[in-house]
What we know:
This protein has 8 helices and 7 strands, in the order αααααββββββααβα. With about 250 residues, the chain is an alpha/beta fold. About 30% of the residues are buried.
Amino acid sequence: MIKMLILQQWHGLSDPELERQANDRISFRQFLGLPEKIPDRSTIWLFRERISESGTDTAIWNELQRQLDAKGLTIKQGMIQDATFIQSDPGHASSDTPRGGEAKTRRSKDGTWTKKGGKSYFGYKLHAIMERDYDLIRRITTTTASVHDSQVDLSETGEVVYRDRGYQGAKCKGYNATMKRGARDHPIGIRDKLRNERITRKRSKGERPFAVIKTIFHSGTVRVTEHGRARVKNTFSAFCYNLHQLRTIQKQRA
């Protein structure tokens, strides 16, 4: 069943399409271990729902991290933290109209509105911290879109953490390598500008996981209506990115 959810995120499939493709494509069946019976769409939905309600996605993610460590892919050079919007369908209601349990609308129950760069976003936000050595995502969390990046710290004590200007002033459990920004009538000096350039070079590849998730897996939008369900979707998106990156590492070593 977990392999089914991985296939779903890899290929951006709905539950009905996942069922059809798993029955039709020999590559899917081989990946699943050539089972005698393919789970139907209802079974897929119920399985994902149980994961959401029980929080089992955390255990699945931690097991992946354990296996990465067992392969010797440990953290050495530091971490890069960043976040990206995962949009959801706001439905037909206006932005200030909350959705009730009986409302007949596609509007997400838990998604929130925010604005960045003059553009409005509705839905959720995927926060991730990746290592600089192997470009693997090591920790994640999902919040609603209105939660500012600076309110989430995924670092651990002893780590060097590279972050952009949006995290200025935010607490950090690790060594804080956050870019600085100036204020009105108080621009940053030349030393801070040079420091920002050094940090930019180190954290620039932090955008790659989100690019893969959105452009290759087509997971920049979720069709679920609750935070727990969006969290599971994001967990498997990050899981799939790590599998994608492991393949890249294998090719580089070969």
